[in-house]
Amino acid sequence: MLSLQNQRQPKTTPLVDDYEISDTVLGLGINGKVVQCTHRRTKQNYALKVLLDNEKARREVDLHWRVSGCRHIVNIIDVYENTYSGRKCLLVVMECMEGGELFQRIQDKADGAFTEREAAQIMHEICAAIDYLHSRDIAHRDLKPENLLYTTSQPNAILKLTDFGFAKETFSNDTLQTPCYTPYYVAPEVLGPEKYDKSCDIWSLGVVMYIIMCGFPPFYSNNGMAISPGMKKRIRTGQYDFPDPEWTNVSPAAKDLIKGMLNVDPSKRLRIQDVIRNKWIAQFNAVPQTPLCTGRMLKEGEETWPEVQEEMTRSLATMRVDYDQMQIKALDKSNNPLLTKRRKKIEEIFNATRN
Ligand code: ADP
């Protein structure tokens, strides 16, 4: 639980007093544009995301702000609460990620220049962000290629995760441990429900790692439909493979890790702790420097990349809905005393209002 003292408040002064907004569009998202802005005094460039002020936007900003100290999460510099043409907006000033998207950078590499060791290093960076979030009981739930950006175009650039539009505070066990109920032993099914949201991020990690290793996604829809019933079934039943020749030289350790992350059963899927302790991630510097075909395959598939992105977006949307429902069911079935008490209370109120 975060104390009120730690909670940061948006500034209410006009953003334009401190920053000059430019016409340069850095990216388009579902919620509008991300544009460049410049700090008037320091002349430093930043990225500005404008959100209509509502409960969802507040949650996005609050969760992103809380974790923006992580080396592998895009840093929030300032947040303003300003009114534009009568509409309240939240203006988020972030560090400007000048290095662009992860897969563009891999695609731009010379053929054969991208190796399994570099792939492991990239995964190590992404896992650091997810570990930071999960250890603070936050699930990102929208981990996909376009949300992984590089600070600069230099070789030493840092890869960072952004866009907390679907982030969620996971059902924390602490909330059940009120002073009057601190159990010595808590059954696994009671600790259960929160794991679904986090397992969504691990599935994404598996898909992203698969694409990093070969340049195409593990699941394809056959007929160009964004998410066909066939594809949904393939995801649900875990029907994917490691085809030759692209996967021939890839180490079995890398394939095993992907299998663990793409396990169809969210409760059996690896947790972030398992992933970061995995030798291929933890000792990425010892991973073989086998050349991968990722750059070439990304180039060949350049035209279909928007479809790959759309498919992942839709798969994640489906998964969030499915897991939310599973979570409600799991909660419903759990026999946690405090929840039972709460449920009884709700029933009582319900019955009282009916009579
Ligand atoms: P949405 O939540 O609307 O999808 P995002 O936060 O994902 O918005 O931003 C949309 C796009 O804007 C990103 O895919 C990226 O290309 C660009 N972008 C976002 N944040 C930054 C940043 N800090 N620096 C540079 N470009 C950014």
Task: Describe this entry's structure for a reader.
The chain has 355 residues and is of the alpha+beta class. It has 13 helices and 10 strands. Strands 1-2-3-5-4 form a 5-stranded antiparallel sheet. A 3-stranded antiparallel sheet has the order 6-8-9. It has a two-stranded antiparallel sheet with strand order 7-10. A hairpin with a 2-residue loop joins strand 1 (19-29) and strand 2. Helix 6 (195-214) packs across helix 11 (294-300) and helix 6 (195-214) runs antiparallel to helix 12 (305-333). It starts with 14 loop residues before the first helix and ends with a helix. 33% of the residues are buried. The model is unreliable at 1-5, 174-183 and 186-191 (pLDDT under 50). The structure holds adenosine-5'-diphosphate. Residues 26-27, 29-31, 34, 47, 49, 74, 94-97, 146-147, 162-163, 165 line the site of adenosine-5'-diphosphate.
**Poorly predicted tracts of residues:** 1-5, 174-183, 186-191
Percent of sequence in beta strands: 15-25%
Q: What's the quaternary structure here?
A: single chain
* SSE run: HEEEHEEEHHEEEEHHHHHHHHH
Q: In angstroms, what separates the terminal alpha carbons?
A: 38 Å
- Strands of the widest sheet, in order across it, are 1-2-3-5-4
The computed structural class is alpha+beta
How many individual β-strands?
10
Helix content: 40-55%
The average pLDDT is 87
Bound molecules: adenosine-5'-diphosphate
Shape: globular
The rounded Rg comes to 22 Å
- How many strands, which pairing sense, and closed or not: the largest β-sheet? 5 strands, antiparallel
Tally of alpha and pi helices: 13
GO molecular function: ATP binding; protein serine/threonine kinase activity
Keywords: ATP-binding, Kinase, Nucleotide-binding, Phosphoprotein, Serine/threonine-protein kinase, Transferase
Protein name: non-specific serine/threonine protein kinase
InterPro entries: Kinase-like_dom_sf (IPR011009), MAPKAPK_C (IPR027442), Prot_kinase_dom (IPR000719), Protein_kinase_ATP_BS (IPR017441), Ser/Thr_kinase_AS (IPR008271)
